[in-house]
């Protein structure tokens, strides 16, 4: 299947000599949610700005829906909706007029039914005649999303879309995102709420220092790069670990009733069998065991640290 966005050897070097992106290549599938993660200054916003035609690349090629963003800018840009980090709306315009204007900018015919559907999905319909300066920060961010969707784009970029948004609104917004994905819209998001990326994304991309470290299906990424924690609970408290287990990195709880052991899921030998044998040899009775998978945040931090 032809990707909806194809990026080849994309680079951006600013006049100061700062390399914001270096030889970045990436294919984005139609209808997927791709989360781009990276620390501040990693190059995420530069990447989005280039694809959306806001920043000129220093090298490389980008195609959106088969259209080169340099040679066929209008057709490429018409396929894209963008919700930037910064809220930028006309303070004294009404919500409905703001969204109508955005649709008109792309040459789309008037479609009140479509705009009504968008505003209702974002809980903005009751505010359609309110001026932007009368809205809360969260409401203004919803208007930004409505603007980005007004011309029915095939691709939606969400650059930190839930920054400064309360928990309830965040959940509502992700329901909208799921609905868009079900309708076939491709969504690329950046977020500092890694739990959101873990819940929402189909694939995860990690950028650091202008380089794309990897792009992987979320489930596979968690399996390959994640670690697990084994917690062993004892029937009676112990006050020292058996000497035979000195080679293991074990964390004994203050009450002596449990020990935690982190292990790599990719390793040929996890060391768990040796661990349990050591407890048995020492006469330590085990009551229960449980395992916990590392979070996406831990996986992300590990990848960035490895690239430092």
TrEMBL record:
CDD domains: ABC_DR_subfamily_A. Keywords: ATP-binding, Hydrolase, Nucleotide-binding, Transport. The keyword Membrane does not apply. It comes from the Bacteria. Its EC number is 3.6.3.-. InterPro entries: AAA+_ATPase, ABC_transporter-like_ATP-bd, ABC_transporter-like_CS, ABC_transporter_ATP-binding, P-loop_NTPase. It is an enzyme of class 3 (hydrolase). Residues 5-234 form the ABC transporter domain. One of its GO terms (molecular function) is ATP binding. This is Daunorubicin/doxorubicin resistance ATP-binding protein DrrA. The lineage of its organism: Bacteria, Pseudomonadati, Pseudomonadota, Alphaproteobacteria, Rhodobacterales. The gene is drrA.
């Amino acid at each position: 299947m032809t990707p909806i966005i194809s990026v080849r050897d994309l680079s951006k070097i600013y006049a100061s000599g700062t390399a914001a992106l270096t030889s970045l290549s990436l294919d984005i599938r139609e209808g997927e949610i791709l989360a781009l993660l990276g620390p501040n200054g990693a190059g995420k916003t530069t990447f989005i700005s280039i694809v959306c035609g806001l920043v000129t690349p220093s090298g490389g090629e980008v195609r959106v829906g088969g259209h080169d963003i340099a040679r066929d800018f209008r057709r490429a840009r018409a396929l894209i909706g963008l919700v930037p980090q910064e809220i930028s709306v006309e303070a004294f315009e009404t919500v409905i007029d703001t969204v109508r204007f955005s649709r008109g900018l792309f040459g789309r015919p008037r479609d009140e039914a479509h705009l009504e559907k968008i505003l209702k999905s974002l809980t903005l319909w009751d505010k359609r005649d309110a001026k932007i300066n009368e809205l809360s920060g969260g409401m203004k961010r919803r208007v930004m999303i409505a603007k980005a969707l007004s011309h029915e784009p095939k691709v939606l970029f969400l650059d930190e879309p839930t920054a400064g948004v309360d928990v309830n609104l965040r959940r509502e917004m992700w329901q909208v995102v799921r609905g868009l994905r079900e309708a076939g819209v491709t969504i690329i998001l950046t977020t500092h709420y890694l739990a959101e990326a873990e819940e929402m994304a189909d694939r995860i991309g990690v950028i650091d220092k202008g380089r794309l470290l990897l792009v992987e299906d979320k489930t596979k990424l968690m399996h390959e790069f994640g670690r697990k924690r084994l917690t062993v609970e004892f029937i009676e408290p112990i006050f020292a670990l058996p000497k035979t287990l000195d080679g293991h990195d074990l964390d004994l709880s203050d009450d002596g009733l449990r020990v935690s052991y982190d292990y790599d899921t990719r390793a040929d030998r996890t060391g768990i069998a040796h661990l349990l044998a050591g407890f048995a040899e020492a006469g330590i009775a085990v009551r229960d065991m449980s395992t916990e998978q590392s979070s996406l945040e831990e996986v992300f931090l590990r990848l960035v640290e490895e690239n430092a």
